[in-house]
Amino acid sequence: MKEQYSWSVDNIKYGRGDIVNIGCNDCNGCCSCCYGMGDTIIQDPYDLFNFCSHMRVAGGQRVTFELLISEDGPWELSYQDGVTLPNIKMVEDGHCPFLGENGRCSIHPIRSGLCRLFPLARVFEPDKTLSYLILNSELGCKKLKNGADPVLISNWIGIEDLEQYESFQINWHDIKLRVSELCAKLSLDRAQKLRQQLLDTFYMKSYDRDFYEDFNRRSKVFNEIVEDFTK
Ligand code: SF4
Ligand code: SF4
User: Fold this and answer.
1) Is 122 a member of any domain?
2) Shared domain check, 132 and 55
3) Does 139 sit in the ligand 1 pocket, CB within 6 Å?
4) Which of 2, 47, 65, 208 could form a cystine bridge with 43, CB 3.0-4.6 A?
5) Which residues in the chain land under pLDDT 70?
């Protein structure tokens, strides 16, 4: 039976080379999707890499994961589908801390993967490929219902070497799934330790200049850690 996605506009899956009608004229005065996102803007290792590579705190010091999740930092840790991960911490009236007073994203060039994607959602296919859906107007872009311009998905996401980025996303998805499934079988104490190992391996230390190579190296180390937890 064909899978149905009640949260998609047309129930069609697209690839990075497809053209879809999601262009919203550079948001043009709208910032709806930077409000009320709760703990849903999850930050993956590539987002961390971007933050640490491009942002500095007062005095020119590099941003670290510890600073990002500190009490005054813009991230927080939350429990997401069986694992502990960082997400952007909404402030005051529920808006993103990176939303500028002019209603524009203040970190647009390094905004996180989920922000780049919106109003698309990723679908991780069983054959280890990645597809995209357009979120319906209830979940997605408020302007979609009023018509939108055609855009190429790879341009919309705007990440250099999208193919390599997608491979990273697929691997990262598999790692999280594996940890989540294993944690469900472990004692509370061991599950907590494994979740911490995930954070220690993929977030605690800044990434090398070649993110993908560093991520793949860490993945191999983490696979061995997971193996130990299965014994
Ligand atoms: S809801 Fe749509 S138009 Fe509004 S800020 Fe988000 S992507 Fe832009
Ligand atoms: S990071 Fe930028 S685009 Fe993403 S929710 Fe915050 S203000 Fe909006």
Assistant:
1) yes
2) yes
3) no
4) 47
5) 1-2, 145-147
